[in-house]
Amino acid sequence: MPLQQLLADLLGDIHQPAILWQALAIVLCVLVGWGLARLMHRSWLQNHQDQHGGLIGLGMGSFSRVLPPLLIFGLLVTTRAVMAHYQNVHLLDVAVPLSSSLAVIRTVFYLLRRVFARRGPLGEALQTFEKIFALLVWLGVALHIMGVLPDVIRFFEEHKLPIGQHKISLSDLVEGAVSIVVLMMLALWAGAALEERLMNVERMHTSIRVVLARMSRAVLILVAVLFSLGLAGLDLTVLSVFGGALGVGLGLGMQRIASNYVSGFIILLERSLTIGDPITIDKYSGKVARINTRYTVLRSTDGTQTLLPNEMLITGVVLNQSLTNRNVRAVTKLTVSYDSDLSVVMPLLEAQPKGVARVLEQPAPNVLLNAFAADGYELEVGFWLGDPENGQGGPISDVNKKIYALVESGQIKLGHPSIDTRLLDAHITSVVARAPNAT
């Protein structure tokens, strides 16, 4: 057995200087690889400490976990090739596959983390998949060391499964599955990297950036699927049947879903809505937080999020407060006493919004006399805001506080409910006059 032969070789090398040189070479490769990785990471941080985007800097922090095993593996392979000309390298024959398996595991899950967990904690499903994948890789290394891996490969090649009119070997199925997983993972990683780079391009409109990111990811996934199917040996002409079935499905059961996807691209391309716009549709109001291809996320002022189907934004009436002009008018109303002098009160109120945070100087604030109410003059204090996506509650509250200070100082007298009791007094007097005198 190869494993027995390997153990015999290792035991035979124990009493020879060759195994000491191999052990020393392994230790040096580990130390040099780890040191080079630390040095490269520190050098990159010093040269790119002010840069937050770009494909070069994408995920460099988490890539520091991948770099050491890759460098160690490369150094071990080189050392083994050099020392094989002068002595036995049985110990290095074990160290090389072990280091390669660790490098494969770290690299694969660096890409998975960059795709599925780059903005949050690692999901439970991904952690479970990581453990299963690591177990499979270590199992393959163990089979290789034991020398039975060629027999396992031969078993998969010789046994075939009947699929329709063709027979496909187990090895072809495994290769196809692996190629699909790897290419899909690379496509998703490349799509995520391209999306992050596009979202950092300030000179491009937000909607255009979102459209390009979504379309590029879809194209990359489609190319990866087609290419992986070709590697698996499947005839791509069978996709025509699938395409016809998909068309029928879109025309029947998936009509609304397709409509939402098309509406999403229309919204992004015509720029009728952009991220940050304050909108109102039906009974929903809030700020556009995210525009996806199927739905749009609307975040209200109280922090709740509403998922609106994109078809609803295309077919319904949408109140967009910042489509062509971002300036919006905020108002606060109050009633002052009829004893007030409007020529003094109105300029005084007009000056209160000035100096409040987020209130624009132009257009200037103004005060309007809306009505002659029962309790006094009804006045409206209006002022303009240039950032409607941040809401109106804060500036209105600040203006009301300044008006309250005027009320407290007596410069403004608010109107109070009043009832004319003269008719009631006359009625009471007549009733008392007709009443008999008490004796």
From TrEMBL:
The chain crosses the membrane at residues 20-41, 53-77, 89-112, 132-153, 173-194, 215-232. Pfam families: MS_channel_2nd. Keywords: Cell membrane, Membrane, Transmembrane, Transmembrane helix. It is a multi-pass membrane protein. InterPro entries: LSM_dom_sf, MscS-like_channel, MscS_beta-dom_sf, MscS_channel_2nd, MscS_channel_C_sf, MscS_channel_TM-2. It comes from the Bacteria. Residues 257-322 form the Mechanosensitive ion channel MscS domain. Belongs to the MscS (TC 1.A.23) family. This is Mechanosensitive ion channel. It comes from Massilia agri. The lineage of its organism: Bacteria, Pseudomonadati, Pseudomonadota, Betaproteobacteria, Burkholderiales.
